[in-house]
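Input/output pair, single chain:
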Amino acid sequence: MSLLHTPPLSAAVEDFVRRFQLHLPVTPPRKATGKRQAAVLIPIICREEPTLLLTRRSDSMRKHAGQVAFPGGAADASDPSLVFTALREAYEEVAIPPDSVRVLGQLNPVDSSTGFQVTPVVGLIPLDVALHPNADEVAELFEIPLQEALNFSRYHPLDIHRAGLSRRVYLSWYEEQFVWGMTAGIILQLARQIGD
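Output:
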């Protein structure tokens, strides 16, 4: 999807788009093994200095309550694509109109701890889009300056051993927000895609 009346992008946003679209991932893709499909939107807000929009999930959620996440969720049988899933979920969770998102592409899918194969979809969001979090799903919205979010030194590895399996997760903080697990891993994947 593309924006009908796209205002000029800042130099920082144009640089991000160029680097995202022209650079191949540093490491070969790892095949995700999750059986059920899901997608998340990685919303880049087109400020002069772009930001990454994240949510903190409601404390009343059944799974991942209170955790920082991208808007997204499980694919419905009627969804024609995983890009559609990501845009539908972003609309349901934070009221981002699907036709306002300029989709740049997708990252390699990742496995969630709950058995989903999650496809991250990268999209540009105009500055003038009004965001309204769905109180049933989202406790709050916050933005991280994109340059800061993509700084490798912000992320600290932690190896978790459970039921004879080892898994590496990453931890990060931004102001009072704790970003970790799949969300931190997706941000790192994006950072690797665009390079330094």
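Helices lie at 11-22, 82-94, 146-149, 181-194. Residues 49 and 59 are 31 Å apart (CA to CA).
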